[in-house]
Write a structure and sequence with these properties.
13 strands, OmpR/PhoB-type_DNA-bd, alpha/beta, Rossmann fold, transcription cis-regulatory region binding, Sig_transdc_resp-reg_receiver, five-stranded parallel β-sheet, 22% strand, elongated, four-stranded antiparallel β-sheet, transcription
Length: 225
């Protein structure tokens, strides 16, 4: 894999780079938010490893900026912050996973492999359809009633999971574990927020409701086909 590491701490940066190169990955490094975003916009990467505390900016803002600029490369956040609300905020701005410092190098590689695996599984050579909804998993595109709709990585992965489980109720726990490979307090509204994002984007191009909330159980995407 081709990996971009955006980290200002030289010891952490050197460690991550050494671990990745030992596992035969190609690594570029950036010490600032500005340089990191420049690399991300000009080059192609399989994953971006991003520190939250950078000398010229906030990792949250950088991740959001990349998503706003249609940079869809998976992002793994590195941070010393361990609070659940920080992790949720990372996911809300478009990150794909989160690991706290200090971290075990084996866990780091396992999370990178999990992100890569989910991306590969979501990027197969199949078409998923549900009424007016159509996902091309080879091109990672989504159309509603023939109109292309842009999704973030998190929105796309959530939609693909729901479509694979179409006409079946899936719980918040299942979504947390299978879409983001994380375990957190599902009493938070994080998953509801992303369900809301998907509903809004679908409603912009269709009069039909596809995603239903099943009280005290979870969510279901209803399809006739």
């Amino acid at each position: 894999m081709n990996v971009l590491v955006i980290e200002d701490d030289p010891s952490v940066r050197a460690l991550v780079k050494a671990v990745l190169e030992k596992n035969e990955h190609t690594v570029d490094v950036a010490e600032t938010a500005a340089n990191g975003e420049k690399h991300a916009s000009e080059d192609s990467y399989d994953i971006i490893i991003l520190d939250l505390g950078l000398p010229d900016g906030d990792g949250f803002d950088l991740c959001k900026s990349m998503r706003d600029n249609q940079i869809t490369t998976p992002v793994l956040i590195l941070s010393a912050e361990q609070e659940t609300d920080v992790k949720i905020k990372c996911l809300r701005v478009g990150a794909d996973d989160y690991i706290t410092k200090p971290f075990d190098t084996e866990e780091l590689m396992a999370r990178i492999e999990a992100i890569s695996r989910r991306s590969t599984e979501s990027n197969g050579d199949r078409i998923l359809e549900c009424g007016e909804l159509k996902v091309n998993m080879l091109e990672r595109t989504f159309h509603v009633n023939g109109t292309k709709v842009d999704l973030t990585n998190n929105e796309y992965n959530l939609l693909v999971y729901l479509l694979k489980k179409k006409n079946k109720i899936v719980t918040q726990e299942e979504i947390a574990e299978n879409v983001w490979d994380i375990h957190f307090d599902t009493q938070t509204n994080y998953i509801n927020v992303y369900i809301s994002y998907l509903r809004k984007k679908i409603r912009n191009h269709s009069e039909n409701e596809y995603i239903d909330t099943v009280r005290k159980k979870g969510f279901i995407i209803r399809c006739e086909n």
